Amino acid sequence: MDTFPIFASLNLDFVFHPRSVAVVGASASSGEEGQVILSNIIAGQFGGKVFPVNPREDLILGLPVFRRMHDIHQTVDLAVITTPVETVLPVLQECGKKGVKAVLVMTSGFGEESEAGRDLESRMVSLCHEMDMVLIGPNTAGILCSHSGLLATRVPIWPLNGEVAIVSQSGDLGNQLLHWATQQGLGVSVFVGSGDEAMVTVPDYMEYLECDKNTRIIVLYLERVRDVRRFFDISKRINRTKPIILLKGGRSEARLAVSTSRRGATRDELKLFSAACRQAGLLEVSLSSHLLDLAAGFCSLPLPKGDRVGIVTLGGGWGVLTADMCNEMGLTVPDLPEEIIQTIGHYLPPFWSRRNPIDLVGTQNREVPLVAVEELLKWNGIDAVISLGIVGRLELARRLIRSTIDVDNTMPLEFLEQTQAMIQQYEKSYIERLVELMEVYEKPILSVSLASSTQDGAIRYVPGARYNAVIYRTPESAVNVLTRMHHYSSFLAKSL
Amino acid sequence: MDTFPIFASLNLDFVFHPRSVAVVGASASSGEEGQVILSNIIAGQFGGKVFPVNPREDLILGLPVFRRMHDIHQTVDLAVITTPVETVLPVLQECGKKGVKAVLVMTSGFGEESEAGRDLESRMVSLCHEMDMVLIGPNTAGILCSHSGLLATRVPIWPLNGEVAIVSQSGDLGNQLLHWATQQGLGVSVFVGSGDEAMVTVPDYMEYLECDKNTRIIVLYLERVRDVRRFFDISKRINRTKPIILLKGGRSEARLAVSTSRRGATRDELKLFSAACRQAGLLEVSLSSHLLDLAAGFCSLPLPKGDRVGIVTLGGGWGVLTADMCNEMGLTVPDLPEEIIQTIGHYLPPFWSRRNPIDLVGTQNREVPLVAVEELLKWNGIDAVISLGIVGRLELARRLIRSTIDVDNTMPLEFLEQTQAMIQQYEKSYIERLVELMEVYEKPILSVSLASSTQDGAIRYVPGARYNAVIYRTPESAVNVLTRMHHYSSFLAKSL
Lengths: 496, 496
Hints:
Oligomer: homodimer
Number of helices of chain A: 16
Shape of chain A: globular
Largest interface: A-B, 96 and 95 residues
Strand order of the largest sheet of chain A: 9-8-11-10-12-13-14
Number of strands of chain A: 20
Radius of gyration of chain A: 26 Å
Low-confidence stretches of chain A: 1-8, 253-264
């Protein structure tokens, strides 16, 4: 079935850190692929040289255009190819002669389902091997490397610089993940749409990421795995130091038709695949939104050392639901020792819950949320804290202030602005303190926003801190992430 | 256990549609409960009269203040009480003498866990019965009635006017639901935090909502149900005409302690409760975020008549994942007849998927998404359509335009603005057409945004249309909602 030779260690350095990039098929027409990709590379402030190649243009986006590859009298490390299917082979030939190290074939329509398409792909691969070029794609959504500033994708999405690598066999899901990463403030090291994987396959990217010092977490979207044994051999090894979070598409029976056309697996193989993931400690998820939820937790928080959760909540309902979910997911919500009840009781009205979840009954006291969180962290009876509704008051306060301005014209505007600034400051110092506490006690704190403003990302960075605050929109997200971090942590402990 | 008498039909008209409201404990100090609630009532543009009551003030927020209830020489339908626990009984007495019809006791701290607290509550109830007043709460998060313009809550959140009623036994979860409703553009008819439910309980609110012509969907967050039989008798009846979506908090064993203190149920009772929900066709969910996802679907879309789903997707990955989830949730993704393949094939490159999901392979053609959706709807082999990634291109286009401006100073700004306006117009007409198609074919279309802008709500209204477009953020949300709508629809069909 697998007709392509596999090379254990392809050198992908020139893919992600090229010194220069040629865009073959660069275009001046707004909206055309060759224009969009060139524009994105330039807008991404790529540090190296950029050479547009097009036989019919002189100047595109202020850059001189080369008619053919051999007109470029400087070294070209990476060629991004956007020309039509029938031109790709000759273009690859030109690239090879020019001494290009890697080619990114964004062109689609090879029709890997047809004999002719497979034949064309296999000729591309042979040619690239002959010419000693690494071939990415074809039919790839492109690549992004935050650390080299290279953004060679169709959609100009620039997430923050960070430590999460994303490899996606689907372009649209890849774009979606980048979009969510940007919304959530998740830092990305590398993105690659692996496309049809004619030469470079997912395990190759993983081996590259294993050694990439900028990457600490690996997120995969897979529809087919060609060499399952190699995938698991590599995953098992890497997962011990860099958690691998993955979503397998094409799981259900009705999808097997599609999967098969994409060289997919049978139903039993899919079951075996999931079992192998569990055995290797890989973090398989079944919902797309869980991929980045988990990535946010893993890249921001210390791992929990056990399953015991302390819950601090601004209101009763959230606490009840969160405890329900903890129990349903196999986590424990232990009773509090009398000592902690005493300490926290000093700050709360007599009718407070006196148990875990600690219900702060909507307290306006600014100290007590942190007192409660720290009391829990100090105690050796818990391994993690979920904090509900402390962050997110700002949005409610904003509404309150806006409402007050509407009805009370005697209210000095400055007072209202001050109130807002005060809450903003409180939230900032609360987050700084959370991050500090995680460093002191080496236990994760997962927050849930009572009313997140749409502008705020899930991750809040504190300069110089080892960990980040993570603020989920729902308790279900927080509980799910904590559960999976617990599984991963137990897996590591067991496999020592 | 239940020491309070239950009255079958309490008149709640004066609660939600009072002609006048007194706020007892109204305050001039910004941030105090008595100030916030008064301010919210005024800012909410309540149409009736508002009387602040406070013995130590003359003017609050521009309104003359009354020292005591009997100083008000006009009719008072509703009294909102925010004064401390120990004053509530005398205040109720005053209200009764004044002829008030309903009291909303926002005061908390009655300590229903203590003998004294329960005693106080039972004296309040007796007093209200004697004086012929309806008692809401105590310890309630307040009420909102979009249609009378009454917003008597601690947090000034005004969702759109609409048909979804929310009843929450938890104040914080209630506020959260209102916040999400606002973000999602979900229209709300009535919100009530039922608090300690000393007199008026959830079934009472439900009976009110049954007759409320503004309410079409009922969302419940429950932690305890006092009279389970009455709850199910009423729910079963109402659910046939107004779908009831509910989340039961306090499900897990570890929560029983808390639940018990709030008169909760045992573990077996909880299992029975869920079984009874299924039997009554109630839509029980286990995650808070599902409450409003479902409400959005039920209030916007026609019910599917079967389980067969057609999927249209702008990219392959989303389609694969969505089909996976449909199958896992018990829906069917049938093969397409040759006729539909032919019709859609005219618009797509030769290498398109030729099956369900219909993968539009990122087409820029503006017609084909709607052609594909309509072909599916026309066909009697499907009952619902999920459309992925058509809506949401605007956000990506915005990014593209911003990026192009950055790198190309020859680009006339007007051209870019025009492009953006064009896409905006396309999205608008696409949505209008979806809504039209639903009306013509009476089948639901659930959309998923490829890259939702954070400003856009999940629901898009088209003036004068019978249905609304619903655009979820993830395929999992769309599949989950469709599955539950299918269950509800089958339940109705079976119980005819």
